[in-house]
Amino acid sequence: MTKNSQPRIYLAGPEVFLPAELNRQVVAAKKRILATLGMVGCDPLDTEILLPHDETPQQQAAAIYQANIQLLSSCQGCIANLSPFRGVSADSGTVFEVGYALAAGLPVTAFSVVAGHYMDRVNHRDGVDDKGFSVERFNLNDNLMIACGIIASGGQVFAGKFSAADVPLLPEQLFDESSFTSAAEALGRLLR
Q1: Which end of the chain has fewer CB atoms surrounding its CB within 10 Å, N or C?
Q2: What region does 70 belong to: left with phi over 0, alpha with psi -120 to 50, or beta?
Q3: 3: in domain
Q4: pTM of the model
Q5: Backbone torsions φ then ψ of 27, nearest 5 degrees
Q6: What's the CA dihedral at 66, 69, 75, 80 to 10 degrees?
Q7: Cα dihedral 17, 20, 22, 27 sign
């Protein structure tokens, strides 16, 4: 990145699983917000991946993984959507990308459309779930390794308007422009 170029920001999140038109709308909103802040959004679906039909599903998955890692490695920061996805916690692929970005020394900020703590979303009694596992009591939006890693990079996790009672989320609830904007502004300050 040259001194006058705009920082490239990797957009980690489960939005890749949204219906195609909704995904396009959400990604366009993210890129528009970043552009107003002098940054360029890089979405995992921006990569051009050829998946030959004669490859196994595992070979196709490996090609997607490599393309996403190359894209992430070309960026100067990351914004992650840590909204609960298919459960009470963030999407596991997004969590991996956050860890990868942090290990690469990139600043990371995040947002979740759900306010409150991880513990609020887990069915428990006195800090123990119905299977007998303890539940983290750290008043963080998700697992401590995710939240504390982001905070250690100088980032923050911004929360949206939904509550634990709203989980599981519907596809159209997975993005909150206000929370994303807060995360983007915070990342912009880190990159100055």
Answers
A1: C
A2: alpha
A3: no
A4: 0.94
A5: -65, -40
A6: 130
A7: positive
The amino acid at residue 52 is: P
How many domains does one find in the chain? Answer: 1
Comparing CA positions, the residue from 114, 94, 112, 107 lying closest to residue 11 is 94
Mean pLDDT score across all residues of the chain = 95
Report the b/e string of 144-156 with b at 16+ CB within 10 A. Answer: eebbebbbebebb
Instruction: Answer yes or no: is 2 within a domain.
Output: no
Positive or negative torsion for Cα 140, 166, 82, 88 = positive
pLDDT over threshold 80, residue 1 = no
- Report yes or no on 129 lying in a domain: yes
Q: Is residue 149 part of a domain?
A: yes
- In the block, residue with structure tokens 């989980």: 167
pLDDT digits (tens, 9 = 90+) for 125-182: 999 999 999 999 999 999 999 999 999 999 999 999 999 999 999 999 999 999 999 9
CATH number for the domain harbouring residue 85: 3.40.50.450
